[in-house]
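Pilot study result, target chain (277 residues):
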Amino acid sequence: MSEGLRPEKTAASRNAYVTLATNADYSLGALALINSIRLTGTGADCVVLHTSVPDESLQKLRDAGARLVATDLLDTSDAFNLAHARDALHARAAFTKGTKPPFHTPLDNFAKLRLWQLTEYDSVVFIDADAVMLKNCDKLFRYPEFCAAPNVYEGLSDFHRLNSGVFTARPSVATFEAMMQRLDRPGVFWRRTDQTFLQEFFPDWHGLPVFYNMLQYVWFNMPELWSWPEIHILHYQYEKPWQDHDKADRLRPLIELWRGYAGQGPIIDPASLPPAT
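Predicted structure:
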């Protein structure tokens, strides 16, 4: 196993859905995600890369059938870490469209690059822990590296930017080493952390339909784009469904859907939910 990764058990499949949990909050999100993936009937592994997660939360993930892989943050320089610390990053590149939660630590995002060290897998689909899977996505394992959906949640002009909440990858030590050489250089600043880096590293990225990474703000910003029968992965960008936040009433059907997968209520059939308006 590659340096920086400590798996609890061996892989059972050649394909894996991978997520990242860096604290108790994101482990709760990961639990809902794993539960939702398992309900699609996949035979792929469900891997949770984790850093600072309490033992109680890890046990819940084990019980849900996750393969846990403890990981370290990337060994980046002090200058890199200072530039991408929460306060420094938000001061230099503020989020103006939504509110990032207090437990969001931008520097942690780069740890997802360690999935390229999971060379026991032929193909990986990464999914952020603040997402749930509504339809089976196993066909994505046959897609090339690097596929991602556009970062569309406000207008069609955003189709040129990818969203790194869902993407396809082929684990490779050579790719990981190339990433590390590119990532941490004097004066570098990745405005949206891993997302900006991945778009530069894979400039010829392949576009997935937005339904494979449907961002929650589409619900009220672009309702004409919302289609429950077509959504495969729903991504709760910005405010999280386990938080109290000022958009909760507008997003109530989406939050109740998430709560079912998190074990906080009945599992809801998306087909029973109202259309976006």
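One observation from the pilot: The helical segments are 24-38, 55-63, 78-83, 86-92, 173-183, 194-201, 218-221, 252-261. A full batch analysis is planned for the follow-on phase.
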